[in-house]
Amino acid sequence: MPRAIWSGAISFGLVSIPVKLYTAKSPKSVRFNQLDGRDNQRIKQKRVNASTGEEVPYDEIVKGYEIMKDTYVIITEDELESLSPKASRAIEIVEFVEEDEIDPVFYQASYYLVPDDLAKKSYALLTEAMASDGRVALARIVMRTKEYLAAIRPSDGRLMLNTMMYSDEVVEPSEIPGLEELDEIEVSDAERAMATTLIESLAGGFNPDKYEDSFRNEVLELIERKSKGELTTAVDSSPATSDTVVDLMAALEASVAAAKEARAGHPTGDASKKAAKKKPAKKKAAAKKAAKKPAAKSA
Amino acid sequence: MAPSTHVAVGDRVLSLSNLDKVLYPETGFTKSEVIDYYSRIAAAMLPHLQGRCMTLRRWPNGVDETSFFEKRCPSHRPEWVPVSIGPGNEHEGSRKRFVGDDNPIEYCRIEEPAALVWTANLAALELHAPMARSVDLDTPTTLVFDLDPGAPATIVECAQRALDMKRIFDAVGLVAAAKTSGSKGMQVYVPLNTPVTHRECSDFALGLGTLLMQQNPELVTVTMAKAQRPGKIFIDWSQNSRHKTTIAPYSLRARPTPTVSTPISWDEVSDGADGANLSFTAPDVIERVGRLGDLFSLVNGTEQELPTGSNH
Lengths: 299, 312
Prior knowledge:
heterodimer; A: alpha+beta; Ku70, Chain: A, Domain 2; seven-stranded mixed barrel; disordered C terminus; B: alpha+beta; four-stranded antiparallel sheet; about 25% helix
């Protein structure tokens, strides 16, 4: 079950609504461990001094910021601590803006805001008011040691919180080669009309269930098969390490016989059952032909 | 039964697993029966696969569960399964490494009976082949028409249209061969085995499809859109594209019963047009090939040219 990752209160003028944050996304990828291929032992990373090659104990490691090549300013944990934003239990709404004004590039992580039991009424009220007004709230929130700008928006009767990038974290399109010249290209009305037609022919509702990460699914299937011992790999070509090798037909015989037995009397299309099978197929075709006639008449 | 069994196929040794696994739940057809079918059909089937970049479609948990296309030959293939560079996947936008010929795909080649047993053991029920061989990816050896019935049309109407095609081929002196798709429709192959491009094949197939459509606008369409298809036979000419594949002759299909894409004679097409059964399962096909031989053998043996302007 998901656990709340933060708890505090939405603060909004004189109103305060106690809430918890639950993460709304769980990205799925397949994680591998690195192993030594010779004996399948785990790979361990060691921190070593780049100059002496000796291992460095964890508590001797400090943070340095490179101000010029090979010259570092050392910043201690205490110094960082003193600068980090004060842990605050408030999600402080600073203003309301139109949702369209926020380019999706600003959105970072998504969370569900869940009201405490006693705050359900005011939570529902705020959600409904925001939904009817069509605006989203910009707020500040401190999570762990970082202060985030966040957008709070109603979604299906619930409030969602999205942490946002700061504007200096978003790459300006002018910094990307090849994007700027696009402004100067002119298109004719006919070209625009054709492009619009093309778009409309492909238009559909957004149905995220339609799309899935097929690569991940294939990797998981592969893992499952291999974990069941279904190895069709190098083993195949190294009979020296394998047990007895038998003739293919001998290997299949027992299994095929068992399968046939299991469905004795079942018309699976054994050649001998063909005659029995043909008839219904013919009838079906005939029935379809017959069914077509009245349709043709009425047309 | 042990999780895997080591078997010898010719001088190859490979391990088979989960032989008793049911891959066709409705009929209880097991993986051992799939392997049995492919090993028995190998002699007739292999000439139609050899030298081609094969696409495997696998149903590891049977036909009722999800499947996946495998174009890139698995890295765990036995060392005696050769690979060839083939066209990249032109329509898979999201995964860059599969797109286009910039990053071409190494496909499996299925050259010998043991390789068919290996793919069967991977639950690759369906094997799909392109029209060109890997040594010359730009020269299709065959032209294909894929006849796909839009309900309520069935294979009966497919057979009727295939006969219309046959009359045209007869008129221009082309030899052609028919097979069921093993699913709902049929394919008609025109062997070429002479210099020709995918474009020429596509153009010819579209041209002939359009001709049939003009003759029978109620019965035929050459348009991909599903909405255009109810009650009509969609003549899919686009499978002559360089990057497309068609279900291989004698491949099983992942239908409720283990049906096969079965080469059939023109007499059978004619009977089928009158409603005779054209659905054949794996045991039927083994029996047929024993009795009739490979009705598709002429596809590899016949050299002919398309009647384009330059030739006449």
